[in-house]
Amino acid sequence: MNQTTAFPPVVRPAGVDETSTEHYCPTTLLAMFTLLMAGHGCCVSADLMLGDRHYAKWQLALGRTLGDAELREVSRRLSAYFESWRVAAMASHS
User: pLDDT tens, 10-62?
Assistant: First the structure.
């Protein structure tokens, strides 16, 4: 059976330059985060990180508590991405 899934339209924050890649998740950093977390025995889904902001924030918070300086820094940098996108998206809806 061939079914198509209707996805909601992408909502971009006001003022986002469509030709810019700034609003995309830094995938190299995300890959580094998932590998560092795996090194601590934590399985992290990159797909869920991108699709579920609550999951992403929970994983990033966990990453900051594991006592690994590199993981803590990567978590901090990724948190900045997720927070900046959330704030920008919220501003466009007000």
Answer: 444 444 444 444 567 888 999 999 999 999 999 999 999 988 888 999 999 99
Query: pTM (2 decimals)?
Result: 0.67
Reduce the secondary structure of the chain to three states and give it as a string: CCCCCCCCCCCCCCCCCCCCCCCCCCHHHHHHHHHHHHHCCCCCCHHHHHHCHHHHHHHHHHHHCCCCHHHHHHHHHHHHHHHHHHHHHHHHCC
Q: Answer for the pair 78, 24: CB distance below 8 angstroms, yes or no.
A: no
